[in-house]
Amino acid sequence: MSAPITETPLLTGKHSFSGITAKISGIAERKAPVPWYLALGAALSLLLVLFGSIGFLVFEGVGIWGVNNPVGWGWAIVNFVWWVGIGHAGTLISAILFLLRQRWRTSINRFAEAMTLFAISCALIFPGIHVGRMWLAYWMFPIPNQMGMWPNFRSPLLWDVFAVSTYFIASLLFWYTGLIPDLATFRDRAKIKIKKVIFGILAMGWRGGNRQWRHYELAYLILAGISTPLVLSVHSVVSTDFAVSIIPGWHTTIFPPYFVAGAIFSGFAMVVTLTIIARKIFNIGDIITVNHLEKMNKIILLTGSMVGYAYGIEFFIAWYSGNMYEQFTFINRAFGNYAWAYWIMIFCNVLVPQVFWFKRLRRSIPVMFIASIFINIGMWFERFVIVVSSLSRDFLPANWDYYSPSIWDISTFIGSFGLFFTLFLLFIRFLPMISMAEVKTVLPEADPHHGVAHSRPGGRHD
Amino acid sequence: MIKLPAGNVLGLLARFDSPAALVAAAEKVRDAGYKKFDCHSPFPIHSMDAAMGLKRSPLGWIVGLAAVVGASSGLGLQWFASTVDYPLVISGKPFFSFQAYVPVTFGVGVLLAATTALVGMLALNGLPRPFHPVFYAEQFSKASDDGFFVSIEADDPLFDEERTTQFLISIGGGNVEALCRD
After folding, report:
1. Reduced to 3 states, what is the DSSP secondary structure of residue A36?
2. Dist. CA A327–CA A340, nearest whole Å
3. Digit-coded pLDDT (tens) for A226-284
């Protein structure tokens, strides 16, 4: 018999089932704190910037952006890839960590899944509006039409349509499935008629009977199982937008895993940024503890190092391939006219996460907050470097040009934060931002052997 | 909404203290031969399926079937569009270049499987169902907070208001309450 390994408790302080219900429901039941109103005001202002930018784009056309030959893909695709990447952390937390029985995920999964949904919503705007005549964007879908035409199923751009829309719908269903028991809690606690009706409809008449739980738990497990390949597949498909083309610097087999690692990296950085703000404003530091943040920082360190490795191996392969275009592209990335973007990327993505080797820095809220912001910036620049440096220096020097965004590129990107934060702030105000049913299961009292005479200390059984 | 006559007892509800007490109670209700009973808790309780004598949910088979149907229709759609209805030579590849069809096939398979997982779960649970006798009990709102309840429905063949009430008390149930519209 081996000595039991003691684990630090997942929640700090003393909690009871009803305490958790009251604490998390209370966030949505009490009057919102003043910072929430200020944040919502700022987010709505940015949302108006987004609407204005898109409105002018509809009126005038994509000529308002900085794109031109040879850089036909500018900020729109950079923003798309960046936002989709951010979503991946939520799916990893909700699906992969669930399958691996990482029970610390229960405090942050609802939050991270919501972030995924809102990030994909922001991402989906960009391919929708960049097509020029965006009222014809439905041509991307295989809908029988009077022209007798079908989309080209051999194009990575079409794979993208399917991958990202499937990702959005599957994430939404997974999120809603997880919400059902908590919506029932909100329904049962509702004091006013309108809340009773709305949460009554959303909870679908959930009774929490074990005859329901047994189907529910299997459904949740299945959704986790089918979302797991999505974590890997969606950004792999996004990377084929580049990798299937023949542009130097894009046409490489490393792209799918490299994009997936980068996506998880940036997504966790975004979860950390948002979590730090939310646990501060809503005073839930005992449910989302420093241990949770530390675990996320470890994943950031791991994936950040994978991304750094990918940057290195790209250079190696360019040299090893003996292909002069490939070699030129990479030397140009590091020392050409976009070198400033390249070194911002290296600093933010490779150097900054190395602070997490040190336990004290890994557990320091200010350090991780600043690091997570740097990583978000760095990952945006990664996509910028990939897209712009390759396109602006293609095979024919006569085509070369320097790409700069216009004011509309910038306003559309900034505006997309308005959409993201508006949705996020409404979510934390009106829905349970932490999964109450799941957090209750990590309390020792939730174990059916707890308090029974023959149980072992800690309520565990084997 | 069907208006039931007031005072008609539709079942009984009893409260227990803890997950451990609920599992023990479930075993006794099962052994007493009741079939139409349920154990309500704010979160799923480990080992409750065995205590209630329930089999594994068939949902896995249903979703598996949906995934196969989804993936085959995804592949079928691409085959039909690219070889029959709108054949187009793209960089000299064969019309049915299946390697390129993998991402969409996978996507449609996942889409149908995920939808079936949620819809199938709700269907197996008989949801959405806004009204149920247990909701007549005031204390039942605790079932989504910190309450652990056993409910036995009146259409169970063994149900007898008097005897079942005594039985629920004898296995340690508190606040035994008859479920009826008041």
Report:
1. helix
2. 19
3. 988 988 899 999 999 999 988 888 988 899 999 999 999 999 999 999 999 888 888 88
Residues ≥6 apart with Cβ < 8 Å to A70: A391, A392, A394, A399, A400, A401
Between A and B, how many CB-CB pairs are < 8 A?
213
Q: What's the pLDDT tens digit per position in A409-426?
A: 999 999 999 999 999 999
Residue boundaries of the structural domains of chain A: 17-448
A13 vs chain B: nearest CA distance in angstroms? Answer: 18
- Under 8 Å between Cβ of B82 and B96: yes
CA–CA min distance B129, chain A (Å): 5
User: How many Cβ atoms from other residues are within 10 Å of residue B2's Cβ?
Assistant: 4
Check A208 against B144: CB less than 8 A apart.
yes
Span B132-156, pLDDT tens digits = 888 888 888 888 888 899 888 888 8
For domain A17-448, give the CATH number.
Answer: 1.20.1630.10
What strands lie across the sheet with B37-40, from one edge to the other? B37-40, B148-153, B11-16, B174-179
Report CB contact under 8 Å: A187, B144: yes
Closest Cβ opposite residue A237 in set B47, B103, B151: B103
Asked if the structure places residue B102 within a domain, the reply is yes
Burial of B37 (0-12, 13-18, 19+ CB in 10 A): buried
Contact A198, A450 (CB under 8 A): no
